[in-house]
């Protein structure tokens, strides 16, 4: 089982990044995908939830209207498009695949928003 995030980096305020989550070793389409983030010295924070089929997507208030989650079950991948980034969005972003029986996490990808 593997969950791997990618796409993080350094971006200026107002910029955009697209994070990817690549999964393998389990039935991706039966798992809800959630994105979380954790900034230094802070607790891990839920960012977005993407239902199994991708039709239902929920966001934290802090990112609503700026971030867009999606998934492609045929490719076993999920995405987080992040626009209008702010310094307070800087964190390690994690992808979580969850079902009634399983809970898989990636190692995270660093996003830094700074001028």
Mean pLDDT: 97
* Strand content bin: over 45%
| Helical content (DSSP H or I, runs of 4+) | under 10%
Radius of gyration: 13 Å
Shape: globular
Topology as H/E string? EEEEEEEEEEE
What would you call the structural class?
mainly beta
The span between the termini is 37 Å
Major sheet: size, sense and barrel closure?
7 strands, mixed
Uncertain stretches: none
Query: What's the helix count?
Result: 0
Number of beta-strand segments: 11
What does this protein look like?
The chain has 115 residues and is mostly beta strands. Helix content is 0%, strand content 52%. The protein has no helices and eleven strands. Strands 2, 4, 5, 6, 9, 10 and 11 form a seven-stranded mixed sheet that branches. The chain has a four-stranded antiparallel sheet with strand order 1-3-8-7, with no helix packed on it. It is globular and about 40 Å long. The model has no long low-confidence stretch (mean pLDDT 97).
Would you summarize the structure shown here?
The chain is an all-beta fold.
Give the tags.
single chain, 115 residues, mainly beta, 7-stranded mixed β-sheet, 4-stranded antiparallel β-sheet, 0% helix, 52% strand
Could you outline the blueprint of secondary structure elements for this entry?
Elements: E1 2-6, E2 9-11, E3 17-24, E4 32-38, E5 45-50, E6 57-59, E7 67-72, E8 77-82, E9 91-98, E10 103-105, E11 109-113
């Amino acid at each position: 089982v593997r969950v791997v995030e990618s796409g993080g980096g350094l971006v200026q305020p107002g910029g955009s990044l697209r994070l990817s989550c690549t999964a393998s070793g389990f039935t991706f389409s039966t798992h809800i995908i959630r994105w979380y983030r954790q900034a230094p010295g802070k607790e891990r924070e839920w960012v977005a939830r993407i239902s199994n089929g991708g039709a239902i997507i929920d966001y934290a208030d802090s990112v609503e209207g700026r971030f867009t989650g999606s998934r492609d079950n045929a490719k076993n991948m999920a995405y987080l498009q992040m626009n209008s980034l702010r310094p307070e969005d800087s964190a390690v972003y994690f992808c979580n695949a969850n079902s009634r029986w399983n809970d898989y996490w990636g190692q995270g990808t660093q996003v830094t928003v700074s001028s």
